[in-house]
Amino acid sequence: MNLLALRGIRRSFGALEVLRGIDLDMAEGEMLGLIGPNGAGKTTLFNLVSGFLPADAGSVAFAGRDLQGLSPAARARMGLVRSFQKSLVFPGLPVVENLALAARLRLGGGYRWWRGRAVAEEAAARATELLDLAGLAGKADTLAGALPHGLQRVLDVLVALAQRPRLLLLDEPTAGLATDEAQRLLGLLRTVQPAPAVLLVAHDLDLVFGFCQRLAVLDLGRLIAVGPPDSVRADPEVQRAYLGGLA
């Protein structure tokens, strides 16, 4: 059974058909890159999978369950978690509290601090584990809003990982990062435990081709190629969509 299964996904905005019959599968633990020119439909597809937009037609199944009608919060509780192009952290809280709060949501504690010491201790342990893994233990007590842009992007991804997702949708997580920072961030996704499946959108094609096991290429709302990086790079239709940029 695939972790994620999209069948016949269609979405229009007025007369503009943004997604045109998308079929796509993801396996447990897979890192899949979703690439395509601007306006190809990548963010719309993210919004449909994560529940922020309904599809006009087709189905989204996660771990064998049809997600029709489920809210983004309900999908996140199932383990389908996403990030956004803009970092979403609590700027007035310390870094470690941002992570602990996210971990509490997955554990069922939410903001209700009286749910028990065990939940608080497990959430704190998850926060400490992620900070150590990312090499940010020295920033634990820093207010999130005081972090430089690059570290806020890292924290945003750590907040998602604190929820122990089975599938993590990352929308431009490396935007604004230097190459070495971006490589470290994507490397973190390979070492964190439990390791989620990752659907990654990023404009840095070298990073995407270097880190992802498979690529799915969108162009004008259609999937024009799905496969290993080398076969996608050599695909003539993909090269046409990028005006030769992948050759």
Helix and strand arrangement:
Blueprint: E1 4-13, E2 16-26, E3 31-35, H1 42-50, E4 57-62, E5 65-66, H2 72-78, E6 80-82, H3 95-107, H4 117-134, H5 149-162, E7 167-171, H6 179-191, E8 197-201, H7 205-211, E9 214-219, E10 222-227, H8 229-234, H9 236-241
Parallel strand pairs: 3-8, 3-9, 6-7, 7-8
Antiparallel strand pairs: 1-2, 1-4, 4-5, 9-10
Commentary on this structure:
A six-stranded mixed β-sheet has the order 6-7-8-3-9-10, with helices on both faces. The chain has a four-stranded antiparallel β-sheet with strand order 2-1-4-5, with helices on one face. The longest helix is centred in the middle third of the chain and has 18 residues. It is α/β, with parallel strands linked by helices and 247 residues long. The mean pLDDT is 89. Helix 3 crosses helix 4, helix 3 packs parallel to helix 5 and helix 4 packs across helix 5. Helix content is 38%, strand content 24%. The protein has a domain of 164 residues: P-loop containing nucleotide triphosphate hydrolases (Rossmann fold, 3-Layer(aba) Sandwich), CATH 3.40.50. It contains nine helices and ten strands.
Can you write the helix and strand succession as a string? EEEHEEHEHHHEHEHEEHH
Secondary-structure class:
alpha/beta
How many H/I helical runs? Answer: 9
**CATH architecture grouping of the domain at 4-90 and 165-241:** 3-Layer(aba) Sandwich
Oligomer: single chain
What would the principal axes of the Cα set say about the shape?
globular
Question: Would you identify the regions where 5 or more consecutive residues have pLDDT less than 50?
Answer: none
Major pleated sheet: 6 strands, mixed
Order of strands, main sheet, comes to 6-7-8-3-9-10
Mean pLDDT: 89
